[in-house]
Every structure is written in structure tokens, then in C-alpha cells.
């Protein structure tokens, strides 16, 4: 999983899934976005319905846009729990730098 700025709304985060397996097992995610500068955080939970993005005829990835907005530029850590039927089946933490 890698985080990137959303192409349309730059203070929103896209999660990009490359070479991922078992994505169809996930039905929702729970996440917290932490600011590295002051430790403040935003919690979110949403259905897991990623969109297939085609890079070229042989390469693709899945993308999910988080439903929270970053309040200011800086470094953020996103702690993500992947859920199936309400139970955590995997978790990870990724970082993202928001620049204006």
C-alpha cells in the first residue's frame, strides 16, 4: 500500500494497492491520520470499494480515496485496519507528505 495525493483534491489521500492479493476479502477499513508535527489525528471508517486503475495494457493497480481532508501541509502517518465482517484481518501504516 502506498499513499499519494488525490489528483482532483490535493488535501485528500489516495491509497494505492500494487501487486495486492485478497483485496476482495476486505469489506471495510478503519483508519487514523496522524500529523507528524503535532500528533493530532482524524479517525475514519468506510466501505472498501477500490477502483481499478490501468497504467498500460499490462499493468494496473487499485485505488481508494479516503474520505477525510488534511487540514494543513506537512507529514502524516496513516494507520489502516482492513476489516472483513467487522474483524481486523490485516493492518499497516503508511506515510504521506501533503505539499500545497
Description:
The structure is a single chain. This protein has strands spanning 2-5, 12-17, 28-35, 41-47, 51-56, 59-69, 74-84, 87-98. The protein is mostly beta strands and 100 residues long. A hairpin with a 5-residue loop joins β3 (28-35) and β4. Helices cover 0% and strands 65% of the residues. It has a four-stranded antiparallel beta sheet with strand order 1-2-6-5, with no helix packed on it. The chain contains no helices and eight strands. The mean pLDDT is 94.
Helices, strands, pairings?
Elements: E1 2-5, E2 12-17, E3 28-35, E4 41-47, E5 51-56, E6 59-69, E7 74-84, E8 87-98
Ends distance: 23 Å
Q: How many whole angstroms does the radius of gyration measure?
A: 14 Å
- How many β-strand stretches? 8
Average of pLDDT: 94
- What class do helices, strands and sheet pairing give? mainly beta
Strand order of the largest sheet: 1-2-6-5
Uncertain segments are none
The assembly state of the depicted protein chains is single chain
Helicity level: under 10%
Order of helices and strands: EEEEEEEE
Put simply, the count of helices is 0
Reported for the largest beta sheet, the result is: 4 strands, antiparallel
